[in-house]
Amino acid sequence: MASTETATLEQAKAGRAEGLWAPALTALGGELAPDAERTVAHVRRLLDEEGCHGVAIFGTTGEATSFSVAERKALLEAVLEAGIAPARLMVGTGCCALSDSIELTRHAAGLGCKRVLMLPPFYYKGVSDEGLHASYAEVIERTGDAKLEVYLYHFPRLSAVPITHGLVERLLAAYPETIKGIKDSSGDPEGCAHFIARFPDLAIFPGTESIMLDMLERGAAGCISASANVNGPAIRRVWDAWKDGREDRQELQDEITATRLVLQANPMIPTLKQILAHRLGDSAWLGVRPPLTPLSGEQATALETELSRLGFDLQAA
Amino acid sequence: MASTETATLEQAKAGRAEGLWAPALTALGGELAPDAERTVAHVRRLLDEEGCHGVAIFGTTGEATSFSVAERKALLEAVLEAGIAPARLMVGTGCCALSDSIELTRHAAGLGCKRVLMLPPFYYKGVSDEGLHASYAEVIERTGDAKLEVYLYHFPRLSAVPITHGLVERLLAAYPETIKGIKDSSGDPEGCAHFIARFPDLAIFPGTESIMLDMLERGAAGCISASANVNGPAIRRVWDAWKDGREDRQELQDEITATRLVLQANPMIPTLKQILAHRLGDSAWLGVRPPLTPLSGEQATALETELSRLGFDLQAA
């Protein structure tokens, strides 16, 4: 690569999100309402104590789609009022309803949160890239904020509406300054490697730390993984070992992969809330919004046995 | 069946929705906002001139999931303010966000619209019947209206969250006075026949008129079909012929099946809007919200050729 090309690429990458990002869990209170106090404390722990470079609020793990626009706006406001820096947040704003996506994106940008993580509208299936492009374009144009950074959220198993290479190309052609990255929650290393190879200027984040080191070595920007809610420090060690070119990086990677396999053996969100409740001695963290359900007593016991076997610290944060 | 059992069954069925229901299209105006005036006029035509027994607003065909809660509430209010009787409406209120489903259901019930059509929360996939039951239960209990009638919306191709027999049984056991029926948009005649056989007290509506006569003869309550937006009178003739036991009912069914095949050859919602725009000479009807896209010029021309070949009247309402 010629040095000017390198410089351009480095410039394009400057200011992109990178590193370990945790899609924060959302605590629930009475009547299944979001519990701002517990959620804010969790976000703060992730950033200050658990080694996360940033927090994605209102991702799949945060049960974003289970909350109303008003609930999501109020919770973001509470996080910011608590003094969390907008630069360390990525805000989920992609909804089925175009008007909701516009409202949430404007709201986040208006509060200085320039990074948004956007699911495509996910009710209609088999829609065209043209239609998905039109949806993102409406949100970007009606938000009208030159600083907005859109991270496309590819989660085909849940959205069943994939982010295709063709869609990314269209969007990059129209909004080169705004489209900044992709969170690839497909779990497919080959697909993630293809995103990295084809879109070298974008920040590509695999959605699982199982493939983090491999993807970092191919050019990924980091990782946005649900596991970071409970295993941040260990995942961060892999990032640091990779950054420093240390020889133990694969060994550290193998450890977090083993933990991940246990975490994902049962439904992920109740599993993470179970661990957090156990660790904090706070059963309020067990609550999930329907249609999710808490782990059964049996599942919880089996989970704790498995994690102890791996030497995973269930007590300390 | 003993006569008392028959009486009980008839009693249970009394007051259930039945007949031909149109899931009304939603007209769009400037900035892709809902156009209340055109939508209300369309609802009125469906009821007064097109032979529909009722109208389901905010179904899949009405692009419900593409609109915010505020937009949906305003449009329902406009329909009621125009003098449409609540008894002739079924209001779509099922969203991903529990709080949205509760707000819309309360709103509809508060305005006297006791019949609601509820999608399950559809972002998370592979969720348990227990979790789906909890979701419907929260909505029913927090609405707290003894007159509420819930019609479960089974549309596995789009929601990817099926309404299982187990879920229906759980809900019927808990809310026997509230769970009134199922709209089965699977398109699968066998599955629809199973719903009818297993839940004889529920009003089962296939979501396509292609199987209407067959299902009516097995005990279906009617049909809720997108096609009724443009082919209501012909579908109604099948209903009437079946009601009257007329011999030409199969012949009439074959006609509407042939039309349906043409309608569903391209994406359904833009197809129906294309026909309506053509028929009314009103291009405003062409608008769809992203991620949907209007038919291409080629698709529109091919559609009109096919429909003319079938003798489908493209001019008159």
Account of the protein in words:
Two copies of one chain form a homodimer. Chain A has one domain: Aldolase class I (TIM Barrel, Alpha-Beta Barrel), CATH 3.20.20. Chain A is of the alpha/beta class. Chain A has 13 helices and eight strands. Chain A is 48% helix and 11% strand. The first copy, chain A, is globular and about 50 Å long. In chain A, strands 7-6-5-4-3-2-1-8 form an eight-stranded parallel β-sheet. In chain A, helix 2 (36-48) crosses helix 3 (69-81). The longest helix of chain A has 16 residues, at 228-243. Chains A and B meet through helix 3, helix 4, helix 5 and helix 6 of A and helix 3, helix 4, helix 5 and helix 6 of B.
Name a few traits of the molecule:
eight-stranded parallel sheet, 48% helix, 317 residues, 8 strands, globular, 13 helices
Rg from Cα of chain A: 19 Å
The helix/strand order of chain A is HEHEHEHEHEHHEHEHEHHHH
* Biggest chain contact: A-B, 39 and 39 residues
Measured between the Cα atoms of the first and last residue of chain A, the distance is: 44 Å
Percentage of residues in strands of chain A: 5-15%
Tell me the structural class of chain A. alpha/beta
For the largest beta-sheet of chain A, the strand count, sense and barrel status come to: 8 strands, parallel
CATH overall fold name of chain A: TIM Barrel
Number of helices of chain A: 13
Q: Tell me, rounded to a whole number, the average pLDDT of chain A.
A: 95
The number of distinct β-strands of chain A equals: 8
Summed up, the domain count of chain A is 1
Would you identify the CATH H-level superfamily of chain A? Aldolase class I
What overall geometry of chain A do the principal axes of the alpha carbons give?
A: globular
Under the CATH scheme, which architecture of chain A would be assigned? Answer: Alpha-Beta Barrel
Look at the structure and give the CATH class of chain A.
Answer: Alpha Beta
